[in-house]
Amino acid sequence: MIAEAGLAALWLGAALCALQLVLVVLTLMASKQVRSDVVEGSSEKKRGSEQLGPTGLVGEALELSRAIRPVAVAQGVLTLAAFALLILLFVRVDLSVLLVAQNDHSEKPFLYRFAASWGNHEGSMLMWVAILSIAGAAVALLERRLNERTLIATLGGQSAIGLGFYAFLLFASNPFARLTPPAAEGQGLNPLLQDPGLAFHPPTLYLGYVGLSVAFSFAIGALVTRDVGPAFARAMRPWVLAAWIFLTIGITAGSYWAYYELGWGGWWFWDPVENASLMPWLAATALLHSVTVLATRDGLRAWTVMLGVVAFSMSMVGTFLVRSGILTSVHAFAVDPRRGSFLLALLALYIGGALALFALRIGTVREGSRFDALSREGSLVLNNLLLSVILGIVLVGTLYPLILEGATGEKLSVGPPYFNSAAGPLALILGAAMVAGPLMRWRREDVRPLLKKLAPAAALVIVMLVAVKMAAPTIGILPLLGLGLSAGICLGSIEPLIGRNLRRTPLFTWGMVVAHFGIGIALAGMACDSAFTAERLVAASVGQTVDVGPWRVKLASVTPGFGPNWTSMEGTLEASRSGATTILRPQARYYWAPPTETSESAILTAWNGQLYTVLGAQAGEGRWQLRLWWKPFVTFIWGGGVLVAFGGTLALIGRLRRERRSAKNREAFA
Amino acid sequence: MATRMKAKHQRLTLVLLAVAALIGAALLAMSALKDQAAYFYTPSDVGRDHLPAGRAVRLGGMVTKGSITKLADGVTIRFLVTDGAATVPVRFSGIVPALFKEGSGVVADGRFDSAGLFVADQILAKHDERYMPPQVAGAMHKSASLETDEKAKAVK
Prior knowledge:
Order of helices and strands of chain B: HEHEEEEEEHH
Largest interface: A-B, 65 and 52 residues
Number of helices of chain B: 4
Distance between the termini of chain B: 67 Å
Number of strands of chain A: 11
Strand order of the largest sheet of chain B: 2-4-5-7-6
Radius of gyration of chain B: 23 Å
Oligomer: heterodimer
């Protein structure tokens, strides 16, 4: 019965979603005549029209609109319930459900039975739809600042997206399909996914990924009602920020997960699946900066709306790449061409529709305030352009092999050499711009004071470049520049705090400083990892010692072991550096459901880097394959990512607090 | 330096900048693709196309059963990759991915030496035991030796 209840909840949610869309269209049509006198303008001017009614709507429109918020909330609750029921099926290992039989196993630990519910195509699509409708419900419940008509149009956008993905879920990816007769035992979950990372990484990533749908719907809403202005931007900003924080955490966690779980010692592979999460992040980062220009200075109107559309479009492209089965990797469980065409059709419909609406309406959006080329706005335009170009490069590199194969049948792979050489230099320029931007004034900055402010960071970059080049003459150009620049970014990013009363500095300024500082830290980690990693690959007999970097590693023993659903060979390594010895235990594991071997790396984290060890196969004559890496400061990569997300969180709290305070002030005046 | 832009021109300037950025991105991407993309070859393609030695390519196929031999250093292996029609010898130093085994699909990055031996820098583990490079699956299908495909069907 649980499966049937889940399916019913989904159908009901889909019906409410359709109802929501109909209500929105009716409301907007009914209110059109009343509002036709109010053409585009900043919403400050519009405030006068709010006297029409508490919601800015009258008569029939007002009555219709009252139902929209509850419908959106109910829809969110229903899909969440469906998702919870699927999790329940997985935890109970109900083998009469096809999806459970294919991906679950009764001998798996609780955590992996729980997380296996989204470690497969149908389950992850259900999570996708659940987050989409919860995001819509959250907007309906929490958003009070936005002009009511725009909010209604926004909820309409959200339900329009929802409808397509409900259809995809119900017609092409039903997670609740029954299996008759029930299986005797489940087929188990891919052992690479049997890791605590699975419980954490996909939900955070999806929250960010799908959370960006709110930005998309906001953009649609603003285009429909021609309400693109600072008030709109201020309302949109926290939503973008929240999605962006989750996306940042998700990408950082995913990178660390791949790093320790795959046993390849790499932290980013430019895999299409990774790119699928990076592209929305790049677009959301650009959006985050342009929405600030719109909120603070009423500039970059069309640009911000466009980025709102692009950011979630990238999420949908990513969903298509990962979910259509067009790629074959751990994330692409679907090997069903019908799903691919279905998703492609949705993609074309939504992105095409949004762009068409943009083209139709953007002419009526007035140009925002102007600014000098050399100003805070100008630097943010540069930030946006660079991020967009990097996004374009990643998009081309990710899609080109697929398009080429589809068109000519020719196969090629685009890997790290392409992405590093094409996007790397631009990322460094972006890093330099990131130091200069926050030091500029809004509207207009003069060259001399700017150069003066930039001097300390620039001097540090030069000192760093010379020092690194002298210490390591063979270092590559990108890592060298990266290291030099990272020092400059770290110094430059805290410069906006200089001369301010730290206690009275707003929280969102702290957020910016921390996030930018985090980028500097992450860049330092990336550069150190690519420049100074030491690697050894040997077949070692028990008792033998191997040197890697500053470490001396002794293979003390190799012993068999076992876990709840695996057996293993476990190496005991004694790693020593300047006297102190630490034990590391890398494993080669054998899982029996499904039958798979994995290697569990063992990692020693020191203050200045990580010793990464992998035990390979037996090499004959009592020897074992050992692969050892010394990776100086590699932890900075993820530490930086965490700082970026933390900075975002500070900014979000700061913004919400200020909103609340100004809302109170407004009430006090009224 | 900081010349104030004319009112009418600012939006135009921004649009032009965006267009220029897009074109720049496309050009940059295309030129980088030309230099950096590694083409995918099956053993049959290799025999047909006469690849120059030393060019970075990606080789995909199935590991021939019984072909894996270990060299004395304990970390180097040699094996044969086939697509059912042609076969290519491969050498690789490193820890092979867990899913690398005889009779399974494999994708290797590397280059050919002058003797026609493929020296792999990296063997890509596709993290799914059912995975097979699509073009290999296509080639094998014709020779009706697609054991893994049967397994995949049995699952459904």
